[in-house]
Amino acid sequence: xxxxxxxxxxxxxxxxxxxxxxxxxxxxxxxxxxxxxxxxxxxxxxxxxxxxxxxxxxxxxxxxxxxxxxxxxxxxxxxxxxxxxxxxxxxxxxxxxxxxxxxxxxxxxxxxxxxxxxxxxxxxxxxxxxxxxxxxxxxxxxxxxxxxxxxxxxxxxxxxxxxxxxxxxxxxxxxxxxxxxxxxxxxxxxxxxxxxxxxxxxxxxxxxxxxxxxxxxxxxxxxxxxxxxxxxxxxxxxxxxxxxxxxxxxxxxxxxxxxxxxxxxxxxxxxxxxxxxxxxxxxxxxxxxxxxxxxxxxxxxxxxxxxxxxxxxxxxxxxxxxxxxxxxxxxxxxxxxxxxxxxxxxxxxxxxxxxxxxxxxxxxxxxxxxxxxxxxxxxxxxxxxxxxxxxxxxxxxxxxxxxxxxxxxxxxxxxxxxxxxxxxxxxxxxxxxxxxxxxxxxxxxxxxxxxxxxxxxxxxxxxxxxxxxxxxxxxxxxxxxxxxxxxxxxxxxxxxxxxxxxxxxxxxxxxxxxxxxxxxxxxxxxxxxxxxxxxxxxxxxxxxxxxxxxxxxxxxxxxxxxxxxxxxxxxxxxxxxxxxxxxxxxxxx
Length: 589
Hints:
CATH architecture of the largest domain: Alpha-Beta Complex
Helix content: 40-55%
Radius of gyration: 27 Å
């Protein structure tokens, strides 16, 4: 027995010591990785060229993803690269202002993002070129949206056997009504807004006339803007570019791209460095220092500390009361209130990139922003989308800035309730119950048996009240009458260009322009920009990645790769509760 206790104690002690060692090793690894992620560079070498790799997914803000490579590897895939628009714009400014940087190299690929985000980058590159420095672009193949971005380059190169996609734009919707009919499910719709078409796939088999009208309008607006910008950069007429699109350039021989003036030369990737040296006026024996995106992110230029701040608050994704990976209204309200109370913040820019979501959550954010506005100027900068609930949380701003291809408006509300009585009949399920009052069973009755006329009237009145409140918020915020807002509301989606004409936005421009307006409103000539909410550090992100929900999300990202965004939208649709103020569609490149 003595020996038993001796060995048992030794085993327990050994396990304890081993656990302590593993713990400190683990923390050491974390610290090492964190310090690596936070390492900065104070100087760039002469003849530096910033390499902006146009691959992966572009999101509003960058974030550390400690386990992306690990999970992708277990699925036999490569991790989908993500870049923050904030980092891209900041790096372009660094490259413009640093004397050691001689140019920017746009290394082609497929960068998944909205058209407004691509225009934001394109405008920043045009500003970069005012410094007298060059922009060169090369890709094995050009997708249409990436080609639009790359045409800003002084020299536009493509692989000698590559493909250039230039064919115009197309939008297609899926309709589920026939499938739901086969299953015995009826989607009961209550909405306000002739153009509020998010519910159409559940009740129609094709687009309504109103929906077709709005899609045709915004699609032509986005395409026409793109054509004009490419025309200016490439010295081609809009007529020529449309004729080339009609030829479906992706299936033409590469030599025709040069002949038509769509690219400057056909080369192989090993010839790009020589072309870049030629752009810079360097001898072929000179050394070019290519600075990758990650390294440029770590470069911190020296600058004088400014106490007074302009706050940029990010509101990105679907709007929810709590949870999810979009806009959490409770969390965002706290951020807004904290910024309002910060005396060093003199002016605020709300950066909105959202198709909307919960009407209730949008109202809470609206209320917090109205209170902030009583203390500081508030400017809204719209990204790819600021529609429905995204417009709800924008409408009270002192000034609204949008890109011409931003999708906004969609002032309307809807609710959906499935009636599964047909499905229950097919599978043989029946229900019975007792109640104390006339409407005690309303919630279950609508789903299991279908809405009665009284229940539908109650639901419609509920939706109508939400719509009237939404319209009033917009009317008050924009200084317009309720009738004037209703004339352009009805759930209709507008591009930023059209929204400017009807008074829903004030100016065309990007985030930098919104910051400039915020500075003017606060009377600031010197200031620093502070982003909110603060980004989570590497260690925090890693620890958060260990909870069950986050791990499931990481696995889904790794498994589905670039298709993950589609899965995310399906999940958001299934998790929606209450009245929704959501844009009816998204544009996929």
